[in-house]
Design a protein that fits this description.
The radius of gyration is 20 Å and the shape is globular. It has 2 domains: 7-185, Serine Threonine Protein Phosphatase 5, Tetratricopeptide repeat (Alpha Horseshoe); 186-248. The protein has helices at 7-15, 21-31, 35-44, 51-63, 67-80, 85-97, 101-114, 119-131, 135-148, 153-165, 169-182, 187-206, 210-230, 235-246. It is an all-alpha fold. Helix 2 packs antiparallel against helix 3 and helix 3 (35-44) packs antiparallel against helix 4. 77% of the residues lie in helices and 0% in strands.
Length: 248
Amino acid sequence: MSVKNAFFVILLATASFAQESTYNRALELYSQSKYSESLELLRSAFNQESYEERLLAAMNYVKLGDGSSALAHLSVLDKKSPGKPEVAILLAAAHRILMRLPAAEQVLIRSITLHPNHADLRHELARIYYDTRRYEAARQQIARILTLSPSHQGAIYLDGLIYMREGNYENAEFRFNHMIQLGQMAPALAADVLNNLGYCYEQRGLKAEGGDRLEFVRKALDHYDQALRAVPGHGPATANKARLKLQP
């Protein structure tokens, strides 16, 4: 799943209280996806006692796929403030990079015990359940998230992905269309949603006949094109469109 997680936006807001100009510039570089440059700037005047600087360093390392370096910073923060949501979410992300899903799960469960109404913590836990094919457990978290935050994009999207994986394309289509109706998606998420919606139409077309089948194929191609407009060169949409056009 290539969704860009909303918790990074929350972490940016959490970290924004630091006043040092070096830190603020490093934060700006992070927001521009210049993760290596942000780290280099942080290293030039790193304050080991700064919560915000360690958090930002960990955020950069997670984006760069360096789980071990992220854990080095996050372990220090977790000892000072056990179970803090933004730290727990990043700890889980670092463990996921290192393929330590049980460790990621335990970190999140511990933090949820302290912060039971934190929707993004529950979303990260639901993602782990999805990755390990525990769909009922994932749906329990999704239901709680949508009670707390009815328009939570990550939860709605994950629910659609579960239905897709189960082959229930009508319900998946409903979830993805709901996300489109809600709007305000980042381009990468919009492209993923549109591509998956196109795939649902394509799969439904395989069971249809005559004009209905052609209509599903038309919808699928249209949504693959929309995904490619949202993110030019989007890999899955490019592959899906090419495959569908080759079919008789």
